[in-house]
Amino acid sequence: MSALVTGDAVVLGLRPARLPSRALALVIDLAVVWAAYILVSLVMLFATASLDGAAQAAIAVALFVLVLVGGPIAVETLSHGRSLGKLACGLRVVRDDGGPIRFRHALVRGAMGVVEILLTFGVVACIASLVSERGRRIGDVFAGTLVVRERVSSGWAAAVPPPPPWLVGRFAGLDLSRVPDGLWLAVRQYLTRMGQLDPQVGWTMSVRLAEDMVACTGAPLPEGVPPAAYLAGVVGERQAREARRAFGEHGPAVGIPSGARGAGPGSACPPVHGPVHHPAHGPMHGPAEGPVHSPAQGPVSSPAQGSAQGRIHEPVHGPAAAPAAGAAPAEPVRSTGFAPPA
């Protein structure tokens, strides 16, 4: 995939956090955690004053594990990668593919943080962050995570374009568990930058990415769906699943344009932001899928014969006038072969 994506290919255009900002966030987090640990230890010391030395030692070890190790893990899991220090510095922990972290990611980062940060006073973490190209410590490498900057200028952010409305929900049955993170990364980068590519190069990249996605999912490419539209639909389906997993079934809709919610089968299909045009047809509208746009009159489709069948209907301006008695029957329209009733 390195031939298709250049540079670090960070998802959504977010910049990796470097050592100074991460060190400041870590200092804030350690100050809060150690303050909580000292406070809880003093309370438990007075509460367990009557116990013997072995019991007090066991309680001290339990407090160390629960507060200094379990506390940061719980905070990062519940806040989806934003602890108090990271929130103050505008940082966030995300997966390598740009998605929110889960408990297993926070657990690996917290377990490695005991050696990297607590036992070595952060020396190992600083060295690893300086050596890494993206500023990752050893815990990030083992967990497959990355600390990125959230507060950046609007010029750096590049959101993934939503799928066409006629493809929303069409890939709900796909098995996306075998798609590697590298392929997700390449697809996201192509969708966000396809407007900057040469049309022929962009079309070739979309075909290659669509073939790789079909090979991973095991489902063939739907007939008549352009590769770029297919990739946008699959990415939108993955974002919708992540939103349902994070916020529940009643969470916010992801990957659905605001104008497409509640639209019927004959609704117009706006092009995705930054389209890459094939010499024969655009990236999001195939020859047999979706409504066909007329340069002067706009798209017209019938709910009964919607965009799924790819039929073209001529627009009608004003009320239809009944033909006079004895008039010659109307000739068929050349573009469709449809003759109005006499």
* N-end to C-end Cα span: 60 Å
> What is the approximate shape?
elongated
Spatially, the strands of the biggest sheet line up as 1-2
In total, the number of strands is 2
Quaternary organisation: single chain
Q: Name the beta content range.
A: under 5%
What radius of gyration results from the CA coordinates? 28 Å
What structural class do you assign from the helix and strand content?
mainly alpha
Helix content: 40-55%
The succession of helices and strands, N to C, reads HHHEHHHEHHH
Can you describe this structure?
With 342 residues, this protein is an all-alpha fold. Helices cover 43% and strands 3% of the residues. Strands 1-2 form a two-stranded antiparallel sheet. Helix 1 (19-47) runs antiparallel to helix 2 (53-78), helix 7 crosses helix 9 (227-247) and helix 8 crosses helix 9 (227-247).
